Amino acid sequence: MDTFFQYYFIIVGALFILTLIYESVKYLIRDHEDWQFELAHDVLNWCILLYPIRKRRPSLRLVDGKSNLAGEYDYYSNTITIYRDNNVIPEDVTKTVIHEFFHFYIITSESKSVLYQEQLEQHGYVNHPQEILCNAMGETLAKRYLKKN
């Protein structure tokens, strides 16, 4: 029985070490070839050229991990967050950045941010007037961006 546990812990330990090595290599490679961030940054710059606004440009943040969202815009921090795990192909990254850019474009004051939340409670996500617009812009402009680039 002792031999079984020795082999078990050796195997589990080896798998744990291999997982750590894999995550470290993945992290190092991402720093040098982060296609998601490069694409998101390029799409955001493209949107700003097409739809200039005097407002400070939003910061862009890409996040690992599980989320129910593809992305989100936070008025208070002026940050567009893109969830990597939900944007695994270039088309998804492009649509999400454009969608969130239009939240940035529309929500220019605290009162508009509050209005968004009130409409979310009233209409829900699917029928939310701003979500309908942002989804339409994301779909339409992503095709245009991907065709040109």
Written account of the structure:
The chain is mostly helical and 149 residues long. The protein folds into 2 domains: 1-33; 34-148, Zincin-like. The chain has 5 helices and 3 strands. Strands 1-3-2 form a 3-stranded mixed beta sheet, with helices on one face. Helix 2 crosses helix 3 and helix 3 packs across helix 5. It is elongated and about 70 Å long. The protein starts with a helix and ends with a helix.
Shape: elongated
Alpha carbon gyration radius:
21 Å
CATH architecture of the largest domain: 2-Layer Sandwich
- The N- and C-terminal alpha carbons lie at a distance of 62 Å
How many distinct domains? 2
Structural class: mainly alpha
Identify the CATH class of the largest domain. Answer: Alpha Beta
Percent of sequence in beta strands: 5-15%
Please trace the helix and strand order, writing H or E for each element: HHEEEHHH
CATH topology of the largest domain: Zincin-like
